[in-house]
Amino acid sequence: MLDTIDGFDRIGDENAFAVLARATALGDKGMDIINLGIGQPDFPTPPHIVEAAVRSLRDGHHGYTAANGIAPLRAAVCADLHRRLSVEVDPDNVMIVPGGKVTMFAAILMFGQPGVEIMYPDPGFPIYRSMIEFTGAKPVPIPMREESGFAFSADETLSLITNKTRLIILNSPANPTGGVTPPEEIDALVAGLEAHPNVAILSDEIYGQMTYDGLEHRSLLTYPQLRDRLILLDGWSKTYAMTGWRLGYSVWPDALADKARKLAVNSWSCVNATAQHGGLAALEGPQDCVSEMMAAFERRRALVVERLNALPGVTCATPGGAFYAFPNVSALGTPAKRLASDLLEKTGVATIGGPDFGTLGEGYLRVSYANSESRIAEAMDRFEAFLNERG
Ligand code: PLP
């Protein structure tokens, strides 16, 4: 009887955590693991952020906070959005949440129900589809193709809208591909959306400060005509190497801000106070830590792309953002998940098979280059030897 609870046959998973568990188990047995699987910066959180959090505990910030977050942090989020994007946001529209993921959980829960369609990127972050299916809504994939630089096409996205579409999820810079959708495409999408005033947008911009080669990240928040139906997802996890702090934020349109707050009150109550004080120091403190991490990621990106392209049967487009490469391994003739699993079991190199991010991910691997240059080079040596051995 307990195994028939409604909806749980439809909820999915994030296989990156399963790969992490398997890699850890192999590591515990003595195998030398190089983790290019999980999507988290390998840097420690910058010391001034850690210090601020420790100080907040000593200063007695041990209690509940407002459900939508402490006022100074919400104000700091608005100041940061103004500094980066030149937009005005009211702190009442900002909600501090326990990790970026929680914004997608809340937004999809609000819009999803049987009879409704929700569009999401494929390949894309697996939780989008999982949560859409959990609510009983129909998931409608937006193809993110290699030949388009893993960006979405405005025309194709608009053509997928029906009278059942309630929410469109967008993600640029993107996981798992590192694709960055160009500003012209975003302009065209926003212009086309004027004909669909009842469709809301969830823009996942968690990698918004992570682009290379001077590529512009065009935030959906910069379009005033969308503000009454845009939910922005962002957070500290990737930009400030704070994945384990569980800290993120959303910007909600006026009509949804109080609903989001009620979801918080009914579940997590508030984000732990210490993490919020750490997040405040991150936004108010020096930003060189962000540019230093990005400089390291840029060097690693060059290395990983060069080495992947040198592998027999592998090609890899240069990703414009985030810290993922998405090499095309289709010529190797092995299903990508099988390839990722063989690579881990035989060489200790953890990657994620593209199908874990959607059906269009077949033929690709996600390689997270959040690891040192020497370990990335060693991983590529092992990958090369593995391919040569199998012939
Ligand atoms: N959105 C995307 C596209 C991600 O890749 C991730 C994490 O990998 C998240 C959201 C979730 O971030 P957080 O760890 O802050 O929940």
Structural description of this entry:
This protein has 391 residues and is an alpha/beta fold. The protein folds into two domains: 2-44 and 288-390, Aspartate Aminotransferase, domain 1 (Alpha-Beta Complex), CATH 3.90.1150.10; 63-284, Aspartate Aminotransferase, domain 2 (3-Layer(aba) Sandwich), CATH 3.40.640. The chain has twelve helices and twelve strands. The strands form three sheets. It has a seven-stranded mixed β-sheet, sandwiched between helices. β3, α5 (126-135) and β4 (138-143) form a beta-alpha-beta unit. The termini are far apart. The relative contact order is 0.17. The mean pLDDT is 96. Pyridoxal-5'-phosphate (PLP) binds at residues 39, 99-101, 125, 171, 175, 204, 206, 235, 237, 243, 248. Residues 39, 99-101, 125, 171, 175, 204, 206, 235, 237, 243, 248 line the site of pyridoxal-5'-phosphate.
Helix/strand layout:
Blueprint: H1 15-28, E1 34-35, H2 47-58, H3 71-85, E2 94-97, H4 100-111, E3 117-122, H5 126-135, E4 138-143, H6 154-159, E5 165-171, H7 183-193, E6 200-204, E7 230-235, E8 248-251, H8 254-265, H9 273-284, H10 288-309, E9 324-325, H11 336-347, E10 349-350, E11 352-353, E12 365-368, H12 373-390
Parallel strand pairs: 1-10, 3-4, 3-5, 5-6, 6-7
Antiparallel strand pairs: 2-8, 7-8, 9-12, 11-12
Helix pairs in contact: 2-9, 3-9, 4-5, 10-12
The structure holds pyridoxal-5'-phosphate.
